[in-house]
Amino acid sequence: MSDAAKIKTPSWDGKIETAPMFICKFEAMCECSDLGEALVDGAVIMTASAYAGAADKTVPACKLFEKNRRAGALYAMGQNSTHGLAFHQNTVTATHPNGKIGDAMRKLKAKCRPLDTPAEMELDAALEKVQFRDANT
Q: Has this prediction a pTM greater than 0.70?
């Protein structure tokens, strides 16, 4: 039996209110697809020229380069707006023509982080009022 499963690439419409769901699903998809390492804070992605010149493509740095490239492609396929694509395209440089998907996701998270403290406090208060019945039976 194989552990492989078909996983649908999550899509995003570029709206701030739907970003948290997309972020969660995209990170989960990357983790399930063995691409999660490309999203790790501080991951150092080698340059395209270093990858091209590497004699052994099985070394961890080359594998990380490939994971970043695949995760970036999946991110792009899931975008239904130019706004979403812009997060990834802003990480594309001459030395990193595939961009850096981890940087794109960090920028997206920072941009879409909820900053509504009063709403958060209201939610906390509402959760404290929830009573469970027969929880100990």
A: yes
